[in-house]
Amino acid sequence: MIGWQDVYKVIEAMFPLYVALTLGYGSVRWWNIFTPEQCGAINRFVCFFTLPLFTFEFTAHVDPFLWNVRFIAADVISKAIIVAVLAFWAKWSTKGSYGWSITSFSLCTLTNSLVVGVPLMKAMYGPMAVDLVVQSSVIQAIIWLTILLFVLEFRRTGLDVSSAASNINDGNKEEQGNKDLEGNTLVVVGGDDDHKPSFWSLMKVVWLKLAMNPNSYAVYIGIIWALVANRWHLEMPGILEGSILIMSKAGAGTAMFSMGIFMALQEKMIACGPRLTVFGMVLRFIAGPAAMAIGCIAAGLHGDVLRVAIIQSALPQSITSFIFAKEYGLHAEVISTAVIFGTMVSLPALIAYYILLDFLH
Question: What is the pTM for the complete model shown?
Answer without folding.
Answer: 0.84
